[in-house]
Amino acid sequence: MGRNDIDTKKDSRHENNCENCHGEMYDFRELDDIIMQAKVIKGNLIIILQEAQRIYGYLPREVINRISEKTGHTTAEIYGVATFYAQFRLKPIGKHLIMLCQGTACHVSGAQQIEKAIKEELEIEDGETTEDMLFTLNNVACLGCCSLAPVMMIKTGEEEETHGKLTPEKTVEIIKELRLLEEQGTENEREAV
Amino acid sequence: MKIFVGQGSCGIASGAKKTAVRISEILKEKDLDIPVIPTGCIGICYLEPIVDIYEEDGKMTRYTGVMAEMAEEIIESHVINGKPLKKYMIPEEGEAFLGKQTRIVLENCGIINPEDIEEYIAKGGYMAMEKALKEMSREEICHEITVSDLRGRGGGGFLTGRKWNQVREQKDSCKYVVCNADEGDPGAFMDRSVMEGDPHKMLEGMIIAGIATGAGEGYIYVRAEYPLAVKRLQKAISDAEQKNFLGENILGTDFSFRIHINLGAGAFVCGEGSALTASIEGKRGMPRVKPPRTVEQGLFGKPTVLNNVETFANVPYIIRNSAEAFKKIGTAGNSGTKAFALTGNVVNTGLIEVPMGTRLKDIIFDIGGGVKDGKGFKAVQIGGPSGGCLTKRHLDLPLDFDSLEKEGAMIGSGGLVVMDEDTCMVSIARFFMDFTQKESCGKCVPCREGTHIMLELLDDITEARAGKDTVNNLLELADTIKNTALCGLGKTAPNPVISTISEFKEEYMAHVVDGICPAGVCEAYKKIIIDDGKCVGCGLCKKVCPVNAISGGSYKKAHVIDNNKCIKCKACLGVCKLDAISIA
Predict the structure, then answer these.
(1) Rounded to a whole number, what is the distance in Å from the CA of A189 to chain B's nearest CA?
(2) Would you give the DSSP letter of residue A147?
(3) Which residue from B minimizes the CA distance to A45?
């Protein structure tokens, strides 16, 4: 990433202790392009926020400030929209986002047991991320795969995979498998180095 | 020969993608030039992944539950040796599941390749649009839809044609068509299936709405939880533009129409009309006071036609076959079909489409195959968090807008969640209240505070803290919210509570008066039991109990637990080495 291209000054007040941005700096080039392109779209704020979240994985404070600067929306207005919708995150998430369906069909088919199994396996609560930044658990409204209840969708980057007819054992197995793949991945990287 | 593999979200989750890839690999290995085509969901979700093999003469053999490792055997026997494999073919009850339906909206789902516009055209697609554009006046289109009695399939049941006509009559030169594809009801997925399995049908309906009302632009507001539907819609729009079914001067006429896709960002309230348009405008999705109504001042303050996916998908059929043909299906004033998502404790889960007015019994027992695991039928929740529950006494009830309204329930978007005898109705009511409480946008006090307090009262019941007047307090509060909330979401939020209390009052009373949960679901009503045959009085449980509820126990003499003191922490269960302690 071209850090030299960054043209905003770091705000010294929250350089090291802001929990939203961790004092990091951001490359705004792609975001700026998107804001430019979105100028022709009426009511574009949600679209810009969705794209920003795609780029950065979440909505850091710097990014919201930047959007405010470039679009003229006040930061209050942007935070108003970002906190209204469940999809937007103000904190970074893990590599694998586990979206556990809490729809009616999943509820009557035992989604609570699945939730318990995930929480115990990962030692996190709903909305939290594991310390190794690998997994985040989000309870979500219906995923629309009711006939396969209980269901979870695991989002890794841009890829989504839906797992149906879950049991607590099957769920733990899926998580363990992902973790194993990650460990093998890092080992391979190390070997390559 | 052609091979279709059902690849809706549910099929893919069952492994259909791997099956399709494996089939292609095998065909390549064997040097066979047979196309493997993705198709949408046929609705028999419990039998996924589904593979249909079409012979040259059009004869189709359907295989179900085809996992990747079964592909080779099927190809070997059916494709190479010409011997269909009976053991993997669709079971009889699967055929029956499909045979008892009437399909208009879902007619092409699971039959055609949703990513190929030519296949939709071959099924008569875009004929209705051309007819509306070249042979009918705006008034005639609106009239045809009005006399067809097509009512909004999103739950409201408002006459679609009347809505269109009101927008047509508006003088404003800028008008919009909006498709509500924010299918947020937990337990409903018919709109997803249409978008994934037959996206052009819905686009065609939207274009016809544009022609009828004089709108130039359309918006589809889709949930972000439906990535596959979004992908297929994008492809469908760009293909339709290539064919000049969308864009400037459609088919050489002076009518121009464009369709945009807006992704929802996860707010259930955006299913409400004015909240949805606010969200498309990039704002917080909060409902506003009406009037002005959407038909007068909707999206960007302009006259707007707002219908849901299923409603639009009915339109091409009506224009092509006439309102009379449409009215032959269903009951008087409730014409056409309705798609239902059949889920929960039922044998055959999936998506079905039946004529309006089909009896509940026929859906659950004939098509659905009855309750799972041979258990007894208790109730069915219809219409999601805004709906109500139907019980044994409703089994003969025809499912249509008017009959349901009389019973205090609503068809909603058409989710049917079947519940067996082991379901606790208080827990179910609590589940829906928890949902609406979380999804309340917070704008009006009755909904924001009222649903919160109702949830607390329900928690009191399920956690064994409630008194006799809790149930009455619930009903009183429900009545206030129903009468004073701002939007449809708030007004209908108490419905599950009202309907479960009216149908299962004795179950509520069993909780608050007798101190038992008849279904054995609510944890707080469970009792810890020490089996005096197994217990040797070792003292481990007594030591670990934080509230000294366990007493007695000496050499070979069993412990005794005082369930009034016990807080159900289950610490004793964990330490007992003899499995003498259980919970019931």
Answers:
(1) 28
(2) G
(3) B282
